Amino acid sequence: MTVSPLVWVLTIIAIVGLLAFDYFFHVRKAHIPTIGEAAVWSGIYVGIALVFGIGVLILGGSTMGAEYFAGYVTEKALSIDNLFVFLVIMGAFAVPRQDQQKVLLFGITFAIIARSGMITIGAVAIDRLSFAFYIFGAILLYTAAKMILDEAKDDDPDAEKKDSFFVGLVKKVLPATDEFDGDRLFTIENGRRVLTPMLLVMIAIAGTDLLFALDSIPAIFGLTQNTYIVFTATAFSLLGLRQLYFLIDGLLDRLVYLSYGLSVILAFIGVKLILHALGTNELFFVAGGEPLDVPEVSTGLSLTVIITVLVVTVLVSLLSPKGRAQAAVNNAHREAVAYVEMTYAGFEARRDAMYERMLEDEKTLQGLPSKFQDLVVSEQNVRALLADAHRIHEARLEFNQRGERSDEQPEGLVVTRADGTIATDGNGKVVTVSEEEAALARSQAKHREREDDRAAYAGGHRG
What we know:
Layout: H1 5-27, H2 35-60, H3 62-92, H4 100-128, H5 132-152, H6 159-162, H7 164-173, E1 186-189, E2 192-195, H8 197-221, H9 227-238, H10 241-247, H11 249-252, H12 258-279, H13 299-319, H14 321-341, H15 348-366, H16 373-378, H17 382-401, H18 433-462
Antiparallel strand pairs: 1-2
Helix pairs in contact: 1-4, 2-3, 2-10, 3-8, 3-9, 3-12, 3-13, 4-8, 4-9, 5-8, 5-12, 7-8, 12-13, 13-14, 14-15, 14-17
């Protein structure tokens, strides 16, 4: 089916409109979305992609529809895997949680742009180079092998190191500061205009987007050579990814075997591309330039394999000892935070029930195999939180024994604000109220200093 220029234009306008809507109505004002908000909008974006796919199925036929859905599912899985790297980058730059939406939306927008460029290059290569499918297949097989080796070594790619080249190059050329100034990309420091970490993290995200496009686009070209399907499946798989992150935030870390599943899918598509290349062979040094009689992998089989591998990967991740270990860490962290935050108004019975659940999670952590212990040590200061919860529990028991209210916290360990909410830093990590107040004071002083610098900078330029 040939897609008219008008359909192309309308599709691009619709995708740009969705991105603009997301920015102006959701991201422009920094905030942390609720689970409900993330669930509703994630469902809306997935629904839009599915409705579009049904339209392709009706108007373009069963083959075109199957190609779209196979491409969409594959690209969605690869995009979720990309979120892990985005999170490592944002963690390395300590991006405040309320500003992470904006960074994610930038990453999604740049990913669409980068992959659109790769789609154009891929389409031209397929049209003009007879051996393009060999190259695409080799790229996917190499990527699959590398993903498996990295996982086998328990040596996940360090996104910060990957992107140090891009960020380091920018820092050498342009002045930058190590402190955020709200969500500004530039600020004034010591009388000169400098880059903020918000811009640097976006540059790092852009660098990874370019690297991801090298794997993503050959994968979908292995499922369809229809450029319109490649573009729309890729774009719709990325739209709504920001909302999906906040929806499955706690689940992401539990998909411990996702890379294995993706490597199997990429290897399968790589083999499919090699078989297709052999079946249309024109290289003189392969069988004298004659096509070979090799089996052709159908789109229906591809879609079945992709969905099956993803379902098995998710189930194994969630049910495996490693997945359960990650779940135990997450649960212990959540219960410890909830117990520390609880005030007298929550009633002692509820506190005791929470404490008992926390103890069960703690026992699970203590019984984990040694190879999973590093999860506990590195996961969101969970040991320190558990220790804090125990100390607060002991103090509350002493209050109860004296017949007094037990909502006081030990001196130096007060993490609950006057309004009953828990004190945290910009990344949601629990801190004491005094630490939060000190950080706020430093931030306000820095803000006043920058405002003075801006005024002096503006005055100097007017003069």
